[in-house]
Amino acid sequence: MASIAKVVVEISLDREFDYRIPPHLQSVIGVGSQVVVPFHSRELRGFVVGLANHSAFSAKLKEIAGVVGDKPLIPDLIMKLAYWIADYYCAPIEHAVRTVLPSAVRKRGAQHKKQLFVSLIDAPAQSNGAGSSVYGTLPSKQQLVIETLQQHSSMTLTELKERAGCSESPIRTLEKHGLVKIEESTILRDPHAGLELLQTKPFDLMVEQQTALDIINASMDKEKPGVVLLHGVTGSGKTEVYLQAIQHALDKGQGAIVLVPEIALTPQTVDRFRSRFGDCVAVLHSSLSEGERHDEWHRIRNGEAQIAIGARSALFAPIENPGLIVVDEEHEATYKQDESPRYNARDVAVMRGHLEKCCVVLGSATPGLESFSNVRAGRYELAEMLQRVDDRSMPLMRIVDMRIEAEKQGRPQIFSSELVQAIYDRLNSKEQVILFLNRRGFSSSLQCEQCGYVAECSECSVSMTYHKRAHKLLCHICGAEEKVPPRCPECGDPDFKYAGMGTEKIEEVLGKLCPKARVARMDSDTMRKKDSYRTVLDQFRRGKIDILLGTQMIAKGLDFPNVTLVGVLHADMSLHVPGFRAGERTFQLLTQVAGRAGRGEKAGEVIVQAYTPHHPAIQAARRLDYQGFCDQDLEFRRELAYPPFTHLVLLTFKGEHELEVQQTADRFFEALERILPASVQHSPAMPAPLARAKGQWRYQIMLRCEHTVRMTKPIRYVQSIFKMPKGVTCTVDVDALSLL
Ligand code: ADP
Ligand code: ZN
């Protein structure tokens, strides 16, 4: 038996420490165990990441002080995954270990909730009805308790007090007399308590669905299952395919993991899985309480739940022997974590699938170019569903050129006459409308008419956004709030111009255009409260709202049959985001938003307003031409050696003093350049597109190469010898999505 444990502790040191395992703990400590160890003069928690019989430091090793739980919290394979993440994403191992275990499970004091249960003790003379005589002499309160317990075999003390309408004392008296027993027992907090769901039966599949399912099931049955990219247009019934594929896994005695993007993780989505599979579904979601998350996780670890569904981190659910991992909306940027380790759950899912020998399904109406090119290269299989369920037609998309509209009306317009007419038509026929604009607030900036001064955040290099209702300027990067100045701080002129538009402004204009319509606005300003999202969607479903207006919050996943018109107000907005992915993002966003229309019996229409109507991304979205878009965008990426033809690593240096940040980035670059292999493309440190955020100046170094290790290895080496000044930090983002 191993006598030495390699331990990573909770604080960030990116290294392992050897500890001696005391004999009495040798049988319970394994890789993945959470342990308590002496560290300098204190005790820290940590995880065992390896075992050994010898240590180079044998002479003065300290002993492990204790272990948490009787079985390692992190299964072997998940530990392997953590190492892979640390290695691939250039992150300290303890960050990776922290990521694979939810804080609700990892934290000190995390434990099952204990409850007191009360049950009857069989009275000796209870047969032939004489039992009643034992109870017959009891005071009425106590009798009531007995009667209540006779109806239910056992119940919690709290519930019993409620049902019997008494305090704790008669129950305690009965306990003293040996008539009832009160025991402490673990109960699981059920986040779905009180929800009655009707069980759904599998649908008869459409032809394309069946073909897709066959491909997935065949892959699952292989000795070495692979990755299947499920490209299914919006409304093609992807979820039903997932459900039946999961059933196949269950039939084989295996479990499954389903990842959905955070914003799509609505009760609506979860219910679809729970109403098919009931209690063997565990949900891991940030809106659950810590306790619920802890219990759901343990339900999986104990094998009570075989299906885990959740956002990004559900990928690490300790499902034993999964047969299938589904990543829905695989193109979503929310799968990328924006703090260390900066992993992409979609890509790590493929790695877990590889380690577990389990099939991975990546599903989307607009698969990312990375996944699509993996199909072309023969690494993934493709399953396509290009028809909507029941042959409902895809919505017709029309593009309105807002430059022409501006000429017609003599000034820039918010609503084209076409869109206004279409909205009126829907209101008349009692159908519903979704309007989409990717910017909250009232106007994008506040500008002085006289001198051109623009109100900017004092901490970030962006202009402040005017929010009318609050009559405030807000920074959308750092959240800073400022009063609107009474006159221009530069020239003293009292007149400001409000340029651009946000959802709040649209709401106001709509109020004038159609005063009778019931409009709801959905963005992060109006959705502050926990339940507001659900409430508004509920009202919309019940027809209490005519027009739903919102930011990207409403772009995904919503399925409302009575929506027959979707309007996109400024489609080019996402084209102006810096970086080579702007076209792809715009195409995806338009396709997804358009997919909200015509999901019922009636056909849908989409009106897209744009200032660059001929942009290829907008035109491809109009033609529903995914392949065409890919061909074109891939060509441009190949020429410029951008992903998916290379991997991209972004180093960002941040600090309060610009000169110091710049010089540090330069010095780092010099050290790096000396050892970078020739196959790595690089350019010197430059100010980031978002040059300053939250008071920190930002400089970037971008590297590109076909092989990630050729970049990360040299980076790690330079990191290990480089002396970073106190005021500067450096983050490494492997396969970065945002280049800000
Ligand atoms: P997607 O996720 O691909 O956009 P959904 O899975 O939401 O599509 O399916 C759209 C609708 O079609 C849902 O209401 C779903 O219940 C229904 N549906 C799916 N498959 C079938 C089928 N084979 N027969 C009838 N209805 C189906
Ligand atoms: Zn700011």
Map the helices and strands.
Blueprint lengths: L3 E6 L7 E4 L13 E6 L2 E11 L13 E3 L7 H13 L4 H8 L2 H4 L6 E8 L10 H6 L3 H12 L2 E3 H8 L4 H8 L3 E8 L19 H15 L5 E6 L5 H14 L3 E5 L7 H11 L3 E4 L5 H12 L5 E4 L11 E7 L16 H12 L2 E6 L4 H8 L4 E5 L10 E6 H8 L7 H12 L3 E5 L8 E4 L16 E3 L4 E3 L6 E3 L12 E4 L3 H11 L5 E4 L9 H10 L5 E4 L12 E6 L13 H13 L10 E6 L5 H7 L3 H14 L7 E9 L2 H18 L5 E13 L2 E10 L3 H13 L6 E7 L6
Parallel strand pairs: 9-14, 9-15, 10-12, 10-13, 11-12, 13-14, 16-26, 17-24, 17-25, 23-24, 25-26
Antiparallel strand pairs: 1-2, 1-4, 3-4, 3-5, 6-7, 6-8, 18-22, 19-20, 20-21, 27-29, 27-30, 28-29
Helix pairs in contact: 1-2, 1-12, 5-6, 8-9, 18-19, 19-20
Bound molecules: adenosine-5'-diphosphate (ADP) and zinc ion.
